[in-house]
Amino acid sequence: MLAAGAVAGAAVTGAVLAPTPASASTGSVHVHKIYYNSPGVDRRTNTSLNAEYVQIANTTGKSANLKGWTITDASKHKYTFTTYTLGAHKTVTIHTGKGRNTAANRYQGRSAYVWNNDKDTATLRSSKGTKIDSCSYHSTRVASIMC
């Protein structure tokens, strides 16, 4: 029932959603949200760059070691996690701009936008290169997508 609602919501917004590989009962580490169109005029200020982000969620009951894991867009912009553990039932936000890394927020350190305002795909891979999850969108009507 939940999946049907997600598909119906995607049809209304014009977004394309990719399914999460693990069942909801077991949990997963997955792409949770992409905020691809930061508010206001795109002037490449650090504040604007950091308002563009992708979130990774850990819905399992155990911490997940993400060292060496990557998140990429369709143009192959890549962020690689250094030593990092995502706690059980926690979310981490990966901002495009510069900032000080914390447990809840990581920063790519870029001076240009990564996520296209019309369509793109976020792909999460393990340190071995195995595809863990992906989330795609194709919409200019909204600024973010829940995956």
Automatic annotation (TrEMBL):
Signal peptide: 1-24
Key words of the record: Signal
InterPro entries for the chain: Lamin_tail_dom, Lamin_tail_dom_sf
PROSITE patterns: LTD (PS51841)
LTD domain residues: 17-142
Keyword Zinc-finger assigned: no
Protein name as catalogued: LTD domain-containing protein
Lineage: Bacteria, Bacillati, Actinomycetota, Actinomycetes, Kitasatosporales
